[in-house]
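FAQ: What does a ligand-bound record look like?

Like this one, built around manganese (II) ion:
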Amino acid sequence: RAVEVDLRQALERDEFELHYQPIVDTATRRIRSFEALIRWRHHERGLISPDAFIPLAEEIGLIAPIGAWVLREACARAAQWPEPIGVSVNISPVQFAGRKLLETVEMALVMSGLAPERLEIEITETAVLQNSDTTLGVLRDLKKLGLRISMDDFGAGYSSLSSLQSFPFDKVKIDRAFTRGLEQSRKSDAIITAVTNLCSGLDMCATAEGVETESQFEALRRRGCQEAQGYLFGRPCMAEEVPALIAQLG
Ligand code: G
Ligand code: G
Ligand code: MN
Ligand code: NA
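The answer part, i.e. the structure of the complex:
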């Protein structure tokens, strides 16, 4: 497969880049952090989205080196932003299988000088369900470094309340399907309200994904959802554009 050959060379060719999407505090509308989202700038095909190459990278054993690059790059970038603005990084379930993740995260923090409290890692339910004992051990070790852990895409897959109970999450990111339905469907509204209340009872932060309109934002704020992320505040943008966004929404 040509794409496989290219993917194996992409790191050496320096073809990956991180885009950053702001996450705001619903009470103040100010930026709290940015989510780092990888893209592959292919020498012939242009910008390729992660959905089109992350599964392949997982399959052919490249997710560890790519994931390490993501962590180093995101931490180095965030160290240049004004405090306390943080960065969140998506971690593949495959990265949890190896024992190297802890070392990789530690190295990224040390090399960048980023305060651990400013780093967040996002994992999905899949990571929690596969090898849950190993994952739990790694998550506890990561938390000892001082960073925070989010459950990504909550409600989209087989999210279970027991994983909120058993795993040391600091934050729940509510899948954008519920935000989309917020104003049309009583069910989505009830789910957002319930998850937000649940988070508050568990001392976890609730972040709504996919916020595209002012009225969605207002509804989320009134229901006590603490953070919002979505096109209303900005699409994922290049690192060079981040300072201007901070100036505007910081
Ligand atoms: O930005 P975009 O909507 O194209 O992202 C699509 C998916 O790719 C999202 O589910 C996101 O979590 C995932 N993704 C983005 N960046 C990374 C990354 O650096 N590592 C991993 N493992 N997944 C990522
Ligand atoms: O799975 P994860 O939540 O990590 O995926 C994040 C992806 O969601 C990003 O790739 C981004 O492009 C996409 N996204 C972010 N904000 C919005 C939004 O407001 N609407 C839609 N439709 N997608 C969004
Ligand atoms: Mn994410
Ligand atoms: Na998500």
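Follow-up question: can I read anything off the structure? Yes, for example: The radius of gyration is 18 Å.
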